[in-house]
Amino acid sequence: MTLFRNFKSRGQSGRALALALAFVLTVLATLVVTLVLVRMFQHKQEERTPFVRLVEVDEMTTDPRPWGVNWPNQYDGWKSTAGDKFYGGSSAMPASKLEAHPWLKRLYAGYAFSIDYREARGHAY
Question: For a disulfide at 66, which of 36, 45, 55, 109, Cβ 3.0-4.6 Å?
Fold first, then answer.
């Protein structure tokens, strides 16, 4: 009889451990789902106001300075393409690719490349 009682008490403690484990896993799953939903709602709110407009610009504004007030990181990146760097253009005029490859004049006919094509320059030009 005592042997049967020992097996019965072991079964109940195992069952209690399984219930506690299931409870902890349920709490963790609930926290993960809640975190994902909160992040989704935060991103939806960010989409509604993607940036704060400090200066009003439209498609017809060609001066880059007002755009730089609203988007300073992009403006600084754009300004850095105008400097004297190896890949951004240099102070010495590179050799013309049209002189080295005359067939490019025909390929680029009608474009500015057919008149002058040297090294790639930044967007500031």
Answer: 55
